[in-house]
Amino acid sequence: MPLSLRTFVPIIALAFASQSYGAAAQDREVPYWASIRASEMNMRVGPSADYKIKWVYRRAGLPVKVVRVHEGWRLIQDPDGATGWVVARLLSPERTGIVVGEGLAAVRGSASEEGELRWRLEPGVVGDLGDCDDGWCEMDIDGRRGWVRENRIWGTDAD
Questions:
Q1: How many CA atoms are closer than 13 Å to the CA of 4, on its beta-carbon side?
Q2: Ranges of residues in the chain whose predicted pLDDT is under 70
Q3: Total domain count for the chain?
Q4: Both 81 and 101 in a single domain?
Q5: Burial grade of 128 (CB within 10 A; 0-12, 13-18, 19 or more)
Q6: Which residues pair with 140 in a beta bridge?
Q7: Domain boundary among 57, 75, 94
Q8: Taking CA 138 as the corner, what is the angle to CA 121 and CA 155, rounded to the nearest 5 degrees?
Q9: Which of 88, 97, 115, 134 could hold 155 in an S-S bridge, CB 3.0 to 4.6 Å?
Q10: DSSP string, 37-79
């Protein structure tokens, strides 16, 4: 059944809108923070599927720093310092953080050393990143919220 002009015009408008959204996303100033959206994502040595795979991530939610933009690809840096190219659609704008450093990181009930100690986190734990202020960041790990020293989290603006 052929498309009528009434049906066709909204489809064209939707196509142009999605293209302009993609172009606007390309204009985002780097560096910026993102997180891995996919349960599996290839990091490549260049911005194309034709380039060799450098690394395979299998950890949705891992924070990454986007340091360069090229068409539908992003040059990222991961928490270990590795850099490479990934497909933009496999990244999420949601901010996350990963616990770094030696030993356990205290999670407090408020942004202070005097805040109630709620629990401790091992290095490598990933959580949703909230506001950061005066050296403390709010984190949500599987619905449990608290404040962690900013210097124990990779994925903040202090990095």
A1: 2
A2: 1-27, 159
A3: 2
A4: no
A5: middle
A6: 128, 145
A7: 94
A8: 75
A9: 97
A10: -SSSEEEESSSSTTSPEEEEE--TT-EEEEEEEETTEEEEE-T
Which residue type, as a one-letter code, is found at position 124? G
Same domain, 89 and 33: yes
Q: Which two tokens stand for residue 29?
A: 């100033």
Name 22's Cβ contacts closer than 8 Å, sequence gap at least 6: 72
**Predicted confidence (pLDDT) per residue in 121-156, tens digit:** 999 999 999 999 999 999 999 999 999 999 999 999
Rg over CA atoms, the chain: 20
Decide if 62 contacts 36 (C-beta within 8 A).
yes
Distances from the Cα of 142 to the Cαs of 20, 37, 129, 145, in angstroms? 35, 16, 12, 8
Residue 83 to residue 112: CA distance in whole angstroms: 34
**What residue type is 50 in one-letter code?**
D
Please indicate, yes or no, whether residues 85 and 137 belong to a single structural domain of this protein.
no
Count of CA atoms in the C-beta half-sphere (13 A) of 20: 6
Does this model's pTM top 0.85? My answer is no
Residue 67 is encoded by which pair of tokens? Answer: 């340091």
